[in-house]
Each structure stands twice: as C-alpha cells, then as structure tokens.
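Researcher: Structure prediction, please.
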Amino acid sequence: RWDRELHADVRRFIALRRDHAVLRRGDYVALDTTETTYAYARHSDDEAVVVALNVGEAPAVVEMKVDGVSAEGTTLSDAWGGDVVTVQDGRLRVEVPPLDARVLIRG
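Model: Predicted structure follows.
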C-alpha cells in the first residue's frame, strides 16, 4: 500500500533536483547545525539553493550566515511556498515547521 503523501514529496524533491543543476553540481556549504536543525547550501555563480531542515517536534527559527553564498540584499524565494527571504547583515532567517524543511532559491 502506497504512502501517497510521501510519494508526492519524493516526486517534488526529484523535480526540484532536475530543475536546478546547482543541486547536482554546485559547491556544498554547511551553514548551521543545532540539536534539531540543519541548514546547508549548494551554490554556483548563477544560482544558490539553501535548505533548512527541522527534525524537532516544534517550529524552529533557523538563522544562518550566508557569506560566500548570497550577497547582502539578495532575495531567495521559497521553492514551494512563494515566501521571499532577504539576506540581511550577511544572514538569512527562516522559520521551519516541525518535521519539515524550507528550500530557498536564488537565481
């Protein structure tokens, strides 16, 4: 019996990787780690993708330094939610729901 929600999520991640070459070939940078969150980026000159994961049971605010990934004032768009986040003081700040992820794209 299929877990349709999981199947839809996997298809969404496969499409994201297919549509953004940086996820296959970009430079990898770990940005932030806590007990329940992890954030990383894959980036190139043309594009950047920042992923923030929350394995905790409560929403988490992830604040990460993005020097070398995205310049001051750069905006990144949520891959699925349409929200826009701006680099301020060399940092990105995002809220991540429990047991979920945010995927932010520049480029």
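Model: The first strand starts at residue 27 and ends at 33.
Researcher: Thanks, that helps.
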